[in-house]
Amino acid sequence: MKILVDAMGGDNAPLCVLQGAADALREFGEGMQLVLLGQREVIEQTAAEHAISLDGMEIVDCREVVSMHDDPVKAARQKKDSSMVRGLTMLKNGEGDAFVSAGSTGTLHVASSLIVRTVKGIKRPALATPMPGLKQNFLLLDCGANVECRATTLNAFAVMGSVYAEKVMGRTNPSVALVNNGTEDTKGTPIYREAHGLMRDNPVIHFVGNIEPREVPNGEVDVVVCDGFVGNVILKLMEGMAKTLFGMLKDVFLENLVTKLCFLGIKNGLRGIKHKMDSEEVGGAPLLGTARPVIKAHGSSTAKGIKNAIRQARQCVAEDLCGTMESALAALNANDTKAEKSE
Amino acid sequence: MKILVDAMGGDNAPLCVLQGAADALREFGEGMQLVLLGQREVIEQTAAEHAISLDGMEIVDCREVVSMHDDPVKAARQKKDSSMVRGLTMLKNGEGDAFVSAGSTGTLHVASSLIVRTVKGIKRPALATPMPGLKQNFLLLDCGANVECRATTLNAFAVMGSVYAEKVMGRTNPSVALVNNGTEDTKGTPIYREAHGLMRDNPVIHFVGNIEPREVPNGEVDVVVCDGFVGNVILKLMEGMAKTLFGMLKDVFLENLVTKLCFLGIKNGLRGIKHKMDSEEVGGAPLLGTARPVIKAHGSSTAKGIKNAIRQARQCVAEDLCGTMESALAALNANDTKAEKSE
Predict the structure, then answer these.
(1) Which residues of A touch B235 (CB under 8 A)?
(2) In what order do the strands lie in the sheet with B57-61?
(3) A192 and which of A135, A188, A332, B336 could share a cystine (Cβ 3.0–4.6 Å)?
């Protein structure tokens, strides 16, 4: 299996990408080849300076770089010699089995749609993010790629999220919930009410009903579905609240000598909480619905984040994520057609 | 000034309502009369049992009670002898200057629209909630009463929130932001993009642009505007995240003898954080846009929550909140008409 890695994407590229790639090869490299895309001399120089072995990695030289300030549509169409567009083109052509990038989310989303295309039944890929939860991690989608969604789109997200949770996160019969402002099926906008009905009647998922935002951080559901506007709010607000509360806590600990000593006493426990809430531990965000696996690593990924994103990509390929997803969506559509005929 | 108080609404009614009312009269009762609505014998018996003085309070006997399980529209139309419907009817007839209730939010919203009606330019009142923020409290609207909003509605929310922040929360030239998944004015759904333009050109508010959900808990903006679906997500997710993180923290402190001792050392600081995040300290949620002031106290309000809601109601009356709001909305409409003519 060959994983394509964007060496130029992310705040800490190329250094952390190279370190993450080397770590991945060492830890779970059996049967896996890595292809680094980026400016060859920059990659080689960085590796040399930091004594990172590039053994087992191929370099594909690309002269352009997609920046966070590029317009996604323009960059996807015009920066043909960028590490991102070249990588996705190789993926489409079968010169690699999955693509990992910590670069611009917007450009990755647009370029994936344009170049790699989507599985049957999906117009635009969803951005799904594995989120830290109290009981366990859960998958949230869409996280901002599709700010407006129809009910049928939300239902398709449910199917794709469910397949990912089973194949990559290892959940058996994953539970799927719809974000809503109440548990009753009469709650929400007309689109959410319709989506609730579709998901309830969806035979290929294990739908557990609406989930109130208050319950989302508990992590008791495997897949949480909403449109990209709401998902982006949930993603960023969870980050913001964690930061705010840890900030308040820090002020409490810094107050005087006694509180500073107390900090030493529970430091390990606090580290445990931070570790639990750490997005890099949880992994990268898969673009679900692309014809071949694309994983978006966090923009501020360190080597650990890149390594974990490569691990996810590996799992997607090993489990034929995209093929399974296409079959599940086809089963859903067949069921809908049958239901329509019998009406 | 006469404040009407629903003695039967909320999880802790009538006891906490009576205590809160008595506390309010003692602390800021000058020039203020309270009218308690509810079953007279229940009110009198509860007051007697707990030695609560009803001096300065009038009782209006109502035989029905609106429950949390009632259908809002049915309850608003049919339970004419309930404390909530009677109170709102008295408010409409000028037999009181403001109404406070800890009862069902849905019924209060519907009944306020039907009975008290709205100021010119507003179809349905907004539910605004004062939220705890790191720097200071902020007003979030809409919090769930209007799950779907047009851009003009969001712009009207901005005006109403701004007037409330100035008149009741005491903010000078309050800053107003629109929730969005990015700070650029091209972000969001078509409705949010249009709302951004309207708010930018709105001469009666101090618009500071989009706010990312990550920044919301910082409390650096006075008024945060969004539709009721998104607002409900923000409100409940902030509660949920605080609960989850405090829960994790509790587990850390309970681990062993040392960590338990550490808890004692920073107990006061933690109490400070909890106090800061306490929705009862922050106050009740005003229904903005009603022709006369209506304040929704938290359903689980203790005496303190009721007292603070009465304080807010008092302030709304003293500052002629509804009149000021109507003038501000009229100024906005006049400006729009002028702008249209000059085009």
Answers:
(1) 213
(2) B57-61, B33-38, B2-6, B98-101, B294-296, B285-288, B126-131, B138-141, B223-225, B175-179, B206-211
(3) A188
Say which range, A28-42, A116-130, A295-309, B273-287, has the weakest mean pLDDT: B273-287
Lowest mean pLDDT among A140-154, A266-280, A307-321, B213-227: A266-280
Q: Provide the shortest C-alpha distance from residue A249 to chain B (in Å).
A: 7
A chain contacts of residue B232, beta-carbon cutoff 8 Å: 181, 213
Tokens of A165: 């949770």
Q: Which of A237, A248, A273 sits opposite B213 (nearest CB)?
A: A237
Find out whether B221 and B208 touch, Cβ atoms under 8 Å: yes
Among A229, A249, A259, pick the best mutation site for testing chain B contact (most B Cβ within 10 A): A229
Please count the residues of chain A. 343
Rounded to two decimals, the ipTM of the complex is 0.91
Count Cβ neighbours within 10 Å for each residue of A25-42 and write b for 16 or more, e otherwise: beeebeebebbbbbbeee
Structure tokens at A79: 């920066």
Chain A residues closer than 8 Å to B195 by CB: none
Amino acid at A98: A
Neighbours of A49 (CB within 10 A): 9
- Supply the pTM of this predicted model: 0.92
DSSP state of A290: B
